[in-house]
Amino acid sequence: MVQKAEKIWFDGELVNWDDAQVHVLTHTLHYGAGVFEGIRSYVCVDGKSAVFRLKAHVVRLFDSAKIIGIKIPFTIEEITDAIIETLKVNGLKEGYIRPLVFIGDGVMGVHPGSNPIRVAIATWPWGAYLGDDALEKGIRVKTSSFSRHHVNVMMTKAKTCGNYVNSILAKVEAVTDGYDEALMLDTQGYVSEATGENIFIVKDSIIKTTPLTSVLPGITRASLMQVARDLGYEVVEQLFTRDELYIADEAFFCGTAAEVTPIREVDNRVIGEGKCGEVAKLLQKEYFNVVKGGNEKYADWLNYYEI
Length: 307
Ligand code: PMP
Prior knowledge:
By secondary structure, the protein is of the alpha+beta class. It has two domains: 7-124, Aminotransferase class 4, branched-chain amino acid transferase, N-terminal domain (D-amino Acid Aminotransferase, Chain A, domain 1, 2-Layer Sandwich), CATH 3.30.470.10; 134-291, D-amino Acid Aminotransferase, Chain A, domain 2, CATH 3.20.10. It has eight helices and 17 strands. It has helices spanning 27-31, 54-67, 76-89, 134-137, 164-176, 219-230, 242-246, 278-291; strands at residues 7-10, 13-16, 35-36, 39-43, 49-52, 95-103, 117-124, 139-143, 181-185, 191-194, 198-203, 206-209, 235-237, 250-255, 259-266, 269-270, 302-305. The strands form two sheets. Strands 8, 9, 10, 11, 12, 13, 14, 15 and 16 form a nine-stranded mixed sheet that branches. Strands 1, 2, 3, 4, 5, 6, 7 and 17 form an eight-stranded antiparallel sheet that branches. Strand 14 (250-255) and strand 15 form a beta hairpin. The radius of gyration is 19 Å and the shape is globular. The two termini are 24 Å apart. Bound molecules: 4'-deoxy-4'-aminopyridoxal-5'-phosphate (PMP). Belongs to the class-IV pyridoxal-phosphate-dependent aminotransferase family.
């Protein structure tokens, strides 16, 4: 259950959590044309709180909206300020932030006409997304029977609400079959991403991730690529197959919610030594160090706020 906070920012105002309601004829509720973000804030090493890569997330929210043809009735600066304001009013020193842009009620055809564009920002505490053990021990993954979106079926660079029906199909299938997460292949059969995470593999110390074809351009992915390169690793963006994943030395998922989650098994095949690999361990450690303000080099990725 999501832990209630005091307020939700809704269309420019802070309203009580229980009052952030919509009509059942809300257009997005029927057809899925809305966009959202998932952002985290952390308590830093110095005890202050900071949002990780706030600007990149807000820019992606606006990019997603542009891709699906929605004009957000606020500026990037207004949404950025509203996120900080919501965290502060809720007294949340560390947690998850969910901005959502959706089409309100009015006409009910597929064409949304001039229905209002509405914006909500909710915040709540959220621990390890894939379970408490996942970050340390790694997870068991199954290749999904559902393919990831074809690039001309859904717009994969947009974090669109409706895109997640595909994720839900895959996630529920994987969990029902006793796995922690689903790996989805693209429509050509190459490894794409998970239901809410990008993927990396490591072979002979070279780090590989998928190119930005069928995947969401993850902000954690981009951050880890930079951190890994700064640590001296070679990082390549290249399509790879599921059998290349099977014989990788290491594999891990990454995302704002999932952070850096090692993969210990795929399709009942043990990956590497069946535990968090050395590279994943190092990147996970450095990722948590960076998000908590422990490395000056990445200071401009943090937006500090005071409770
Ligand atoms: N792919 C999908 C499908 C996702 O939902 C997410 C989570 N936003 C990611 C990748 C990772 O993106 P990010 O690192 O920006 O959270």
